[in-house]
Amino acid sequence: xxxxxxxxxxxxxxxxxxxxxxxxxxxxxxxxxxxxxxxxxxxxxxxxxxxxxxxxxxxxxxxxxxxxxxxxxxxxxxxxxxxxxxxxxxxxxxxxxxxxxxxxxxxxxxxxxxxxxxxxxxxxxxxxxxxxxxxxxxxxxxxxxxxxxxxxxxxxxxxxxxxxxxxxxxxxxxxx
Length: 176
Ligand code: HEC
Fold this sequence. Notes:
Layout: H1 3-8, H2 11-36, H3 54-58, H4 62-71, H5 91-105, H6 116-131, H7 140-143, H8 151-168
Helix pairs in contact: 6-8
Bound molecules: heme C.
């Protein structure tokens, strides 16, 4: 550092300035964090109509039902259970976004509303996603150990999605 500068800003002053900036930044972050807590997510689940529910309609074996409930239903149904950290912004926003997007793409609670073509396509995607370990989302089992699927469990889930799709027996337009 040039002599002139050190002269104007002795080391002590420089240190003080640095610590003030650091403090300001910390206070700003803390302030933003507190303000963020006021933007709460909506945790009310829409009504569940059992007659429309995927599990109720397809009656999977208990083991498969348990996997669906513990590894898929939090994001793909109206039966979401929100963990304690869903009270904490910005984690809560991230989590709610998964639920909204998850339901938008695939909602087991309104399965009966899907026409045959859509149901066929969703089932196909289900076994593809589970087989290639795309679902459940990678971040999910970190905090939901019961959603960690073994190879064997994955295989069972895939087989069951495939069977259900076969039973649906949707014939594509061109093959009619
Ligand atoms: C933590 C939330 C979460 C969990 C748990 C989860 N999903 Fe998803 N799923 C999503 C989100 C978000 C999307 C949409 C964006 C994407 O594809 O990444 C999605 C997309 C999908 C799609 C694609 C649908 C389409 O039409 O594009 C399928 C199929 C799917 N999930 C099946 C499953 C299955 C089966 C399980 C359980 C084994 C599961 N998901 C668990 C959040 C989740």
